[in-house]
């Protein structure tokens, strides 16, 4: 799958313009962001990219702030390099050490996940992966049936397996993510993970005790009724990929329509992971 990369140069003395732009782009499907010295880069799957929509979405900000961007189509090869060049180990809540194959192991951490970064999202660096991992570490997972929707590198499904999940399904719309999840599961000796390729309507299973979904606000809103139907009674839903302001209230409102009760949320740089229960 090819991606579009928008390279932003932002004059941002107060430090909030970048966040506004990222929030706005995530509303129209951009799902990966990377800091640069002069601004940031935003990525979207090529088939979801609509140049006109981007300029419409940013038009209000154009008059108020000083920024510019250029658009590049990037094939997988370059995407691969983006991750490999930027991957540093991540430590979550002093418990979980996430490293690449080329980093040495560190025995002082009780849990470790080894990720071959490749081109799939999910190395623990992004706030949302970090927040989801942090939430998972505090969730009762032992013996549960778990769905990881939008699995990326498979990192959350792998963590769920290490925490004792019995039945695991990892699904992504991008075939590269599915194969990356399979490879990473093998690297971590996870042998109970099933995978699926496609969107939510391709998932035929129900009765999940736990659904993990780190995607983006609009896709989560579209998926909400499915998640509610696929959860077992008292099943938990942990979602991320959206902002505290203004997205959390919108997500809570949609969840309430399907009797999903809000429990709590964590934030990091305005990104959120929120837990709901059926
Ligand atoms: C933000 S990444 C999360 C990856 C990983 N779960 C993590 O927490 O780091 C979102 C993933 O969702 C996938 N995705 C986007 N839209 C989707 C959809 N409609 N159905 C399933 N997966 C989707 C993307 O391909 C991407 O791998």
Automatic annotation (TrEMBL):
<keyword id="KW-0949">S-adenosyl-L-methionine</keyword>
<keyword id="KW-0687">Ribonucleoprotein</keyword>
<dbReference type="Pfam" id="PF06325">
    <property type="entry name" value="PrmA"/>
</dbReference>
<dbReference type="GO" id="GO:0032259">
    <property type="term" value="P:methylation"/>
</dbReference>
<dbReference type="GO" id="GO:0005737">
    <property type="term" value="C:cytoplasm"/>
</dbReference>
<dbReference type="GO" id="GO:0016279">
    <property type="term" value="F:protein-lysine N-methyltransferase activity"/>
</dbReference>
<protein>
    <recommendedName>
        <fullName>Ribosomal protein L11 methyltransferase</fullName>
        <ecNumber>2.1.1.-</ecNumber>
    </recommendedName>
</protein>
<comment type="similarity">
    <text>Belongs to the methyltransferase superfamily. PrmA family.</text>
</comment>
<dbReference type="InterPro" id="IPR004498">
    <property type="entry name" value="Ribosomal_PrmA_MeTrfase"/>
</dbReference>
<keyword id="KW-0808">Transferase</keyword>
<comment type="function">
    <text>Methylates ribosomal protein L11.</text>
</comment>
<feature type="binding site">
    <location>
        <position position="214"/>
    </location>
    <ligand>
        <name>S-adenosyl-L-methionine</name>
    </ligand>
</feature>
<keyword id="KW-0963">Cytoplasm</keyword>
<feature type="binding site">
    <location>
        <position position="129"/>
    </location>
    <ligand>
        <name>S-adenosyl-L-methionine</name>
    </ligand>
</feature>
<dbReference type="GO" id="GO:0005840">
    <property type="term" value="C:ribosome"/>
</dbReference>
<dbReference type="InterPro" id="IPR029063">
    <property type="entry name" value="SAM-dependent_MTases_sf"/>
</dbReference>
<keyword id="KW-0489">Methyltransferase</keyword>
<feature type="binding site">
    <location>
        <position position="172"/>
    </location>
    <ligand>
        <name>S-adenosyl-L-methionine</name>
    </ligand>
</feature>
<feature type="binding site">
    <location>
        <position position="150"/>
    </location>
    <ligand>
        <name>S-adenosyl-L-methionine</name>
    </ligand>
</feature>
<dbReference type="InterPro" id="IPR050078">
    <property type="entry name" value="Ribosomal_L11_MeTrfase_PrmA"/>
</dbReference>
<keyword id="KW-0689">Ribosomal protein</keyword>
